[in-house]
Write a structure and sequence with these properties.
PAS-like_dom_sf; TIM Barrel; Sensor domain-containing diguanylate cyclase
Length: 530
């Protein structure tokens, strides 16, 4: 038995009733660094590191004095000064007279296990890139703040999103982007420490700042929040030196005053995210404070997107044709306008569902549906009997950059056998700033198939004449905002005349939208008889 105890992997120590060490096994020598003859006769306090709380020792002796076994963790110190953690089981030993004669302790060195637990805890609750609390940890901190709220107290939660980080990653690489995030985090740390508020890194380019609650009226709290957001944006805009370069950064902030109705941490974060998305619509270096209507707007958008997916499956869309006439009033072409007939809500304006579709891949599905419906119309008996020069349809910029437009149109030509030159695809000038080379490539491929192109709302966007010369464009459409009031010797007259002159010199077909009066028609026909 003595040999088994001496060779056990667990540390075993036996003391007398006064706590003097009488025996230690080899494992105890190996773990502590002390030899047996150094320990026998001394007190276990020789191992005391000073890091174990006094309350632990009080509990230990209270348990032992009651004749019970104590179990717990102790932070001890090896002979070389290194601290280690043991899980200790200490049992008092009594003689036949009921007197405590010895204490036996069996200890397990759990230092590595504790280190692993700490690493796992760190990984679970902190962002490794910045060392800041992560989303899970911040959620718990917010819940604690909400739980401790007193009557009349209000606090603020800010979400701070670095502007254009993806572009920086693309241009300079992810390692540079990571160092930039770390530099940004350091600046945020300095600011939040001065403010006495909690900072967290929710991942990638997103940070959170939690202001503790204070007694305040909601309107006063909101006014102060506006000032805080402005001040923080100013701090963020200060140049950051990095890798021998000096960068000027900006961020977008979404903020919310708490508590909110039915608001736990996740709901509060979602509302701050809603405000952040609202602010992002204005570009970088902006902030928005959450309002209830923002949440209602998001919900409406979600509902519309869900219904629109259903509409595409259940053939609720229709393509209306708007006639285009020449100077004599003869119908020569048409424009296809997509409309949505909801079975319960009736006609839903494209101004409602198209922007929502643009923010998702739904716009690609709508484009495909529009192109298929246009192909069916061009292949129909009615068009064969009453031919038109062109049927124009508007296609999203996304379809030129990330879609399969050439393949879709090729299949439609193969399936419906319509004249390709009768399909006029309208593009806005904004298409040209998405990915100019890709757009030109797609347009030229479609042009080889015989498809023609029109630039919609010409003059309202960003295109240059140099780009127009490169594109296989057949038509320019003058936006109706220019057409209104022409003939009244306003600046619109000069603008329209300039656009007509461009079209004439480039030998392009010209379309003027929204002509409603004889004066407007006369002005146009006098300057462009065809």
């Amino acid at each position: 038995l003595e040999t088994a105890v001496d060779q056990s992997n667990e540390c075993i120590i036996i003391t007398d009733a006064k706590g003097q060490i009488e025996y230690v096994n080899k494992a105890f020598e190996w773990i502590t660094g002390y030899q047996r003859d150094e320990l026998v006769g001394s007190n276990p306090r020789i191992l005391k590191s000073g890091l174990t709380q006094q309350s632990v020792y009080h509990e230990l002796w209270d348990t032992l004095n009651q004749g019970k076994t104590w179990r717990g963790e102790l932070l001890n110190q090896r002979k070389d000064g290194r601290v280690y953690t043991v899980y200790s089981i200490i049992t008092p030993v009594y003689n036949e007279q009921g007197e405590c004669t010895h204490y036996i302790a069996v200890e397990d060195d759990i230092t590595e296990r504790k280190a692993d637990e700490q690493r796992l805890h760190y990984m679970a609750y902190y962002e490794t890139l910045t060392g800041l609390p992560n989303r899970l940890h911040m959620t718990q901190i917010i819940d604690q703040a909400l739980a401790s709220l007193e009557e009349g107290e209000l606090g603020n939660l800010l979400l701070v999103d670095i502007d254009r980080l993806q572009q920086i990653n693309d241009a300079r690489g992810h390692e540079f982007g990571n160092r930039l995030v770390q530099a940004f985090a350091e600046r945020m740390k300095q600011w939040t420490e001065q403010q006495g508020v909690q900072l967290a890194h929710l991942g990638a380019d997103l940070f959170a700042v939690l202001f503790p609650p204070q007694v305040s009226k909601r309107e006063v709290a909101k006014e102060k929040l506006y000032e805080t957001c402005e001040a923080l944006l100013t701090v963020i805009r200060k140049p950051i030196p990095l890798d021998g370069d000096v960068l000027t950064m900006s961020a977008t902030i979404g903020a919310v005053v708490y508590p909110q109705k039915g608001g736990n941490a996740e709901q509060l974060l979602r509302r701050a995210e809603t405000a952040l998305h609202k602010a992002k619509r204005y570009g970088g270096n902006h902030f928005a404070v959450y309002r209830q209507q923002y949440g209602e707007e998001i919900k409406r958008q979600f509902d519309v997107e869900r219904m629109l997916r259903h509409a595409l499956k259940n053939d609720e869309l229709d393509l209306y044709l708007q006639s285009q006439v020449d100077a004599t009033g003869k119908v020569v072409s048409a424009e296809g306008l997509v409309r949505w007939h909801h079975p319960e809500q009736g006609l839903i304006s494209p101004g409602v569902f198209i922007p929502i579709a643009e923010r998702s891949d739904l716009i690609l599905s709508i484009d495909r549906w529009v192109l298929q419906r246009a192909a069916q119309i061009l292949a129909s008996k009615e068009i064969a009997e009453n031919p038109i020069d062109a049927l124009s349809v508007n296609i999203s910029a996304r379809h030129f950059v990330r879609g399969d437009l050439v393949h879709v149109v090729s299949k439609l030509l193969e399936n419906y056998h319509f004249k390709p030159q009768q399909l006029m695809i309208e593009v806005t000038e904004g298409v040209l700033i998405e990915d100019t080379d890709k757009v030109i490539e797609v347009m030229r491929e479609l042009s080889k198939l015989g498809i023609r192109f029109s630039i919609d709302d010409f003059g309202t966007g960003y295109s240059s004449l140099a780009y127009i010369q490169k594109l296989p464009v057949s038509e320019l459409k003058i936006d109706q905002s220019f057409v209104r009031s022409i003939g009244e010797k306003t600046t619109h007259d000069a603008l329209v005349e300039t656009i007509l002159s461009i079209g004439e010199h480039l030998d392009l077909r010209m379309i003027a939208e929204g002509v409603e009066t004889e004066r407007e028609a006369r002005f146009l026909t006098e300057r462009c008889p065809t």
